[in-house]
Hints:
Blueprint: H1 2-18, H2 29-44, H3 48-61, H4 67-75
Amino acid sequence: MAILKRGYEVHKAKCAKCHPFQNPADYEANELRDEIMPVMARKSKLDSTDEKAVLAYLLAHGFSPWGLERYTRLVGQVF
């Protein structure tokens, strides 16, 4: 769960400076992973560890019925 805490902290410090929280449930997980996070991470100058932490936080926050197995397949083992 440390990665989720780190994701929250990075999101609050970097992402929320520029825009309000976007509900991750409004996006497909692969859209967050493949399209949104790479662009936002680059703009925010996140390293790959913090990018993964923010993505894990967003996906956990917007957790939907596709469940942990698909989450792990898309993001990798984070817990």
